[in-house]
Design brief:
Helix content is 36%, strand content 15%. The chain has three helices and three strands. Helix 2 (26-39) crosses helix 3.
Length: 107
């Protein structure tokens, strides 16, 4: 109604996330940053849309959220470059990088 832009990630599963996890959801922060950088649009909200539940969870993002996420990505990239990377292996079945990851077969 007010013309503001919201970025929604469509989820096919049933499980909603806690408000605490939504507030720091890295994927949503990256989407917000990407739309801001690529399109110059500062979306009012980011969120998850669950069509099966007809539910939406919304949160906000700020420049400090972008900086914190990008700093974390730089740390991870540095650890990979230094071959000192220790990933969380609990998500391997859903990870798009599993075919390339030396940890996948160990988990």
């Amino acid at each position: 109604e007010d013309g503001s832009v919201h970025i929604l990630d469509f989820k096919t599963g049933w499980a909603k996330v806690s408000d605490d996890k939504l507030a720091v959801h890295p994927q949503l922060t990256l989407y917000h940053w990407g739309v801001l950088q690529g399109m110059g649009i500062n979306a009012a909200k980011v969120g998850l849309f669950f069509p099966r539940k007809r539910a939406v969870q919304l949160s906000t993002r700020s420049e400090s959220d972008h900086i914190q996420l990008l700093d974390e990505y730089v740390k991870v990239a540095d650890s990979i470059t230094k071959k000192d990377f220790h990933p969380e292996t609990g998500h391997c079945a859903h990870c798009e990088m599993s075919k390339l990851c030396p940890f996948f077969k160990q988990s």
